[in-house]
Amino acid sequence: MSDSRNTPSTLEVALGSRSYPIHIGPGLLGDPQWLSPHLAGRQVMVVTNETVAPLYLARLRQGLGDDLEVRELVLPDGEATKALASVERIWDALLAAGFNRRCTLIALGGGVIGDMVGFAAACYQRGVAFVQVPTTLLAQVDSSVGGKTGVNHPRGKNMIGAFWQPRAVLVDTDTLATLPPRELSAGLAEVVKYGLIRDADFLAWLEAEMPALRGLDAAALTRAIERSCSLKAEIVAEDETEQGVRALLNLGHTFGHAIEAHQGYGNWLHGEAVGTGMLMAAELSARLGWLSDAEVARTRAIIAAAGLPLAAPASMGVEDFLAIMRLDKKNLDSRLRLILLRTLGEACIHDATPTETLTALLEAFPRR
Amino acid sequence: MSDSRNTPSTLEVALGSRSYPIHIGPGLLGDPQWLSPHLAGRQVMVVTNETVAPLYLARLRQGLGDDLEVRELVLPDGEATKALASVERIWDALLAAGFNRRCTLIALGGGVIGDMVGFAAACYQRGVAFVQVPTTLLAQVDSSVGGKTGVNHPRGKNMIGAFWQPRAVLVDTDTLATLPPRELSAGLAEVVKYGLIRDADFLAWLEAEMPALRGLDAAALTRAIERSCSLKAEIVAEDETEQGVRALLNLGHTFGHAIEAHQGYGNWLHGEAVGTGMLMAAELSARLGWLSDAEVARTRAIIAAAGLPLAAPASMGVEDFLAIMRLDKKNLDSRLRLILLRTLGEACIHDATPTETLTALLEAFPRR
């Protein structure tokens, strides 16, 4: 397993005593040198789902040494699994196995698995080690970086959770070979987001390379993941608990969460809703006089090129959006707080959007 | 409300950006100057229980300003309430009220309320502010200081939780007037613990003042609470997440948790189990050659003077203790890790107790 492909890029997320590495590259999953250094003790529980288990669980087990007490827990796939009841299953399994505070949880799967397992680790015996092994592009560029963990509540997404950092993140780019195209597009939404909020050069590179990315070109994917993780790591290092600049990562998310909440979690993929939400944010930014029509057109074009929806659900009226957005946890003391674009490559936090401007955007935005 | 009694002592728990004050004194509960500075925003939820609500909820409401959105949640009393289901009730109430990330939870009650509300705050929208208003001696000297929050699991005490610091702790010594004598003794167990593990002078002072403490002498209680919080604050500041010295605070707790778990939580009070557990730890320390018979006798005498049990439950055999203690979360990688006494006023972490020595102690220790 130690062939010559096996020299990953490594980013360090700088968080003082909670700093951790992100290894990115092909062939990492079955190679013991990447997992072993990050285990807290001998007790290891791998948590994955029914889709990922047959594809990658055996290979991950190869990457664990022999002198370990390894348990596996396979949960159902899908956003509906991202609930407190699943976290309780993890805790029950840990206690049934007699696992102590020096155990390590490994999250093998997409963002749902990563968020849930991270939260289970954050609260098991007041916090144990965990390692993220994200197998979707979305998880690789977003939810495996930054320490946000949690589950959904019937009244809202990610309402219950904790900030809890992994010991390490292993991004094995080989796992993207089995990713459905729709999920690849959902991951690309977050990649495009990094360009829109912070890096105009990266955005231009993405405009050129989008066909290669959708065609699973390994070099292009590796560079896109690296740059995305690097931009997110910079932001997270500046603002670990989302008091300031980190909020910019939520571009498109307030609109997107409203779509997900209204449609029922899992019917729209998170990245799809964020893609449409970013276009809504861009159009609102134009109504506030910040983006030109040409910049909105570029935004629409790259979201389309990524294979993402350009219209909101036909069943969602203006009031549906407003009611859900007002509950969003990013709204402090009932002021609607949105992430908008000053220009392409520069986002801002805005809590003074006139209601009539927002309403006009919500009325005019296409439905399908 | 601002009479001359109202000049509390204030300790600062030094934890960098998470530092917080502990105000101790009479008459704090109804005085707005103590609560108001610690609220994160306008949304406030007071969580208490059915015993405490009729006694102190109205007085606490007086201590909240008028310009707030205040909700109340009254839970059943008792250790059985300290479960994930209760935390879910808090989260449901917060979401039903539309409370956002800038809300504040106030825990009004004993250790169960404090631990649960702290955990609810730790995980609501990945962490919101909370203030502890402990109304039992145990909570005042122990569970309101140090940021340990959590709930019990059917397989073990405090298995699910988080480290989460309050914004402030308000100890109104007037609330002890309504505390049942048995609960006062349970709180004194933790007070005695601080003397045993770290402060021989304080232990000697307690030997002299125990009758005054049990007679609710206000000055003696205030001094005992201050010194206990101060000792605990010192230890927590040295070791926030229990990697080292903080473990010393668990003197008597591994034995005590075994008693509580075997008897069913709530049948023995936590402090009662810790009292008996400290005597077991002292006797084991003597068997290891560290304490003299006279020191064990002093330990037994002060535990008795505090009104605490000197014998373990008749129904608990040696194997019952061993089986539960091995699951205790303080045991790393299956080594039994105990807090013992080198001398009175100095505790140590010991993970090399010979099984036969422990077994002999468990066989010889009195039952009732």
UniProtKB/TrEMBL annotation, chains A, B:
Pfam families: DHQ_synthase, DHQS_C. It is found in: Cytoplasm. Keywords: Amino-acid biosynthesis, Aromatic amino acid biosynthesis, Cobalt, Cytoplasm, Lyase, Metal-binding, NAD, Nucleotide-binding, Zinc. Pathway: Metabolic intermediate biosynthesis; chorismate biosynthesis; chorismate from D-erythrose 4-phosphate and phosphoenolpyruvate: step 2/7. Gene3D superfamilies: 3.40.50.1970, Dehydroquinate synthase-like - alpha domain. Catalyzes the conversion of 3-deoxy-D-arabino-heptulosonate 7-phosphate (DAHP) to dehydroquinate (DHQ). Belongs to the sugar phosphate cyclases superfamily. Dehydroquinate synthase family. This is 3-dehydroquinate synthase. It comes from Halomonas ventosae. The gene is aroB.
